[in-house]
Design a protein that fits this description.
The protein is of the alpha+beta class. It folds into two domains: 4-110, Gcn5-related N-acetyltransferase (GNAT) (Aminopeptidase), CATH 3.40.630; 120-282, 3-Layer(aba) Sandwich (Aminopeptidase). It is 29% helix and 31% strand. It has nine helices and eleven strands. The protein has helices at 4-10, 18-21, 64-82, 100-108, 151-161, 173-181, 213-216, 237-251, 269-275, and strands spanning 22-27, 30-40, 47-55, 89-96, 112-123, 142-145, 191-194, 200-208, 220-228, 256-262, 279-290. An eleven-stranded mixed beta sheet has the order 1-2-3-4-11-5-10-9-8-7-6. A hairpin with a 6-residue loop joins strand 2 (30-40) and strand 3. The radius of gyration is 20 Å and the shape is globular. 32% of the residues are buried.
Length: 292
Amino acid sequence: MISAADLEVDLDEQLVPWATDTRVALADGALVGYAYTNHMPSEVREERCYINGIVDPAWRGRGVGTALAGWATQRGAEQLLSSGRDLPRYLRAGAYDYQTDARDLYLDLGMRPVRYHDELLRPLTPLPTIPLPTTDDRHDVHIVPWPDDRDDEIRTAKNNSFADHWGSTPTSPARWEQMTRGYGSRLDLSFIALDEEGAVVAHCLNKRFEADDELLGRSDAWIDNLGTLRAWRGRGIASALIARSLHAFAQAGCSHASIGVDSENPTGAARLYRALGFEPRQRMITYERVIA
């Protein structure tokens, strides 16, 4: 669940202009659905625009979702074509594999499934030991709490860490601000890894969505964004960051930890997460349409 205040934070008007990129559906003056587009301009690799929305369950099957998604598809295509850049352009949307109504709608809109992301879950008992990253004669690594004054350095490391990930383009300062200080963000439960000279080599941005606790019957914390610079992979840094996070979650009173992983992640992350006690819970499917 998401509150109105949190939704307003999530729909930062600098990134999602409300007048042009959002629409609501009203019935007798009552809100029964909404949709918005989330355009991610890029100067490298590809341009993406995600369409998002929801319809009140009591109003589903009446064409509300079709109308909203039709608008979002058209608006998203306009945004992608407006950039003028000679890059591949993709309109994308996500739905869980059990959301067959959303699947059918996206297929009707000419989108096709292109990627599968698994959401994994583990209880916070027992907790793993916090391993020390592998070092050599020249390098040492330290896991430290997320600092308040190194945003741009961490963002740069994040962009470099994700350069070989599917569907990833560099995160702008404005989007990084939203990611790190927007809805659900918990920098007090987040960590970074530093080399012996104090440079950022990995990060673990974590989130907490208290409004979901009653619905889920548990209190989850999310490992939301985890990345390690390519030259530093294979040293156990990600394992140490996750373990440190799990201990922080438990100390904050959470009962479970969740994490998402691309089923085709090139770093072998899925194996790592399972080795740390995470088990598959549900699967998100990304649907895509190429905009020529």
